Amino acid sequence: MPIKIAPSILSSDFADLKSELKKLEVAGADLVHIDVMDGNFVDNITIGAPVVSSLRKNSKLFFDVHLMVIHPEKHIERFVQSGADNITVHAEATYHLDALISRIKSFGKKASVALNPATPIYMIENVLEIVDMVLIMTVNPGYGGQKLIPYTLKKIERLANFREKEGLTFEIEVDGGINEDTIVDCVKAGADVIVAGSYVFDSGDVSKAVEKLKSKVRGLR
């Protein structure tokens, strides 16, 4: 299957998100990655469900909503109603991961789990049969423009090997420090979905940046 590119609007112009989404549609982005930060789980604060709802009215892109919040179970229904297609929760942010994933899926949405760089894969082994995607953070979450942490490539590889061994079907997403070089490393390690923020939106040409990322990994699978 082709590698999917999911530009992150964290690095876009928040004063003109409607236009930024249109750029992604024209560019052929496969998903749009929407980072929701509460100032508690991570230091930064971004957007909430009302903004996602407004964006939904202006885009048909697949909304990949990444909740970097404490007690994510309190927010699920609001993001379901806002138009999220996939909701990702952090394993580190909830005590009842199985119940939370099942609740997201009960609304007919895709459910995914994220791991911070230092969190081991074994923490989520028991839910890998029910998740649609696993997001491996390749930087510490909260801010864009960081460099990929090298040891996270081994995590991607271990997760991909586990998936193959167990015959599972979840996708592996990576987020953090992606550029035209690191995307190759991530895909070779086993990643299927690539989140890229600064590389895409700081490039000056969103379409060219997305196409360059796709071209770098075309044929690797």
Automatic annotation (TrEMBL):
Binding site for a divalent metal cation: H33, D35, H66, D175
Catalytic residues (UniProt): D35 (proton acceptor), D175 (proton donor)
Binding annotation for substrate: S8, H66, G142, Y143, G144, G145, D175, G176, G177, G197, S198
Reaction catalysed by this enzyme: D-ribulose 5-phosphate = D-xylulose 5-phosphate
Top-level taxon of origin: Bacteria
Cofactor (UniProt): a divalent metal cation; Co(2+); Zn(2+); Fe(2+)
Top enzyme category: isomerase
Annotated EC: 5.1.3.1
UniProt keyword annotation of Isomerase present: yes
Alphabetical list of NCBIfam families matching this protein: PRK05581.1-4, rpe
PANTHER family per record: RIBULOSE-5-PHOSPHATE-3-EPIMERASE (PTHR11749)
Primary role: Catalyzes the reversible epimerization of D-ribulose 5-phosphate to D-xylulose 5-phosphate.
Matching HAMAP family: RPE
Family per similarity comment: Belongs to the ribulose-phosphate 3-epimerase family.
Full protein name: Ribulose-phosphate 3-epimerase
Organism: Caldicellulosiruptor owensensis (strain ATCC 700167 / DSM 13100 / OL)
